[in-house]
């Protein structure tokens, strides 16, 4: 399995380089054609997308995004997958922000400053599991939900670099050396009413495998189908 992934990544890099060179040669050979404003803008857009893809393939990462309805067990599943209790799982919707858990041997917590944030932001190192959990729950999620009751604000963005237990055993995932792994706990469906937060969620799920959590005991078949359709729109 590892060899197959390595081959796919190598072939993708080679094909991407060939594509970039072909477009570069085309623009150099026919500069007058690309003087057209419309074509020039499309060429620049291609260059940006091409460079982003090149960068991602230089440091490939397996991203898994957890989406679903509020209080459906998303954070519980995330904790089970990483083998640690890091994502808050208190009563109510505690995962209203964007919590990214990335595999790393050196522990670090980053709480980004977002528009309208009313919680502490910054960088912390060497926090244990319990300290991380409390910092995310009490320092970010609770202030965020208190603020949301009074006014709109951007969902907090939190990234924790910690050893993810499944990644520590190479036999479990079978990924080539150097491939990163991250799990993203996203806001529940009922807590993403504003466009800014929807944009954040769509940005994450478009670059990740999505796992959908839905509490079948909370809704009937009709309501469940409607929720799944709404989730599908968010992902698309």
From TrEMBL:
<keyword id="KW-0342">GTP-binding</keyword>
<keyword id="KW-0472">Membrane</keyword>
<dbReference type="GO" id="GO:0003924">
    <property type="term" value="F:GTPase activity"/>
</dbReference>
<keyword id="KW-0378">Hydrolase</keyword>
<dbReference type="InterPro" id="IPR027417">
    <property type="entry name" value="P-loop_NTPase"/>
</dbReference>
<protein>
    <recommendedName>
        <fullName>Dynamin N-terminal domain-containing protein</fullName>
    </recommendedName>
</protein>
<dbReference type="GO" id="GO:0008053">
    <property type="term" value="P:mitochondrial fusion"/>
</dbReference>
<dbReference type="GO" id="GO:0005525">
    <property type="term" value="F:GTP binding"/>
</dbReference>
<dbReference type="GO" id="GO:0016020">
    <property type="term" value="C:membrane"/>
</dbReference>
<feature type="domain" description="Dynamin N-terminal">
    <location>
        <begin position="64"/>
        <end position="220"/>
    </location>
</feature>
<dbReference type="Pfam" id="PF00350">
    <property type="entry name" value="Dynamin_N"/>
</dbReference>
<keyword id="KW-0547">Nucleotide-binding</keyword>
<dbReference type="InterPro" id="IPR027094">
    <property type="entry name" value="Mitofusin_fam"/>
</dbReference>
<dbReference type="InterPro" id="IPR022812">
    <property type="entry name" value="Dynamin"/>
</dbReference>
<dbReference type="InterPro" id="IPR045063">
    <property type="entry name" value="Dynamin_N"/>
</dbReference>
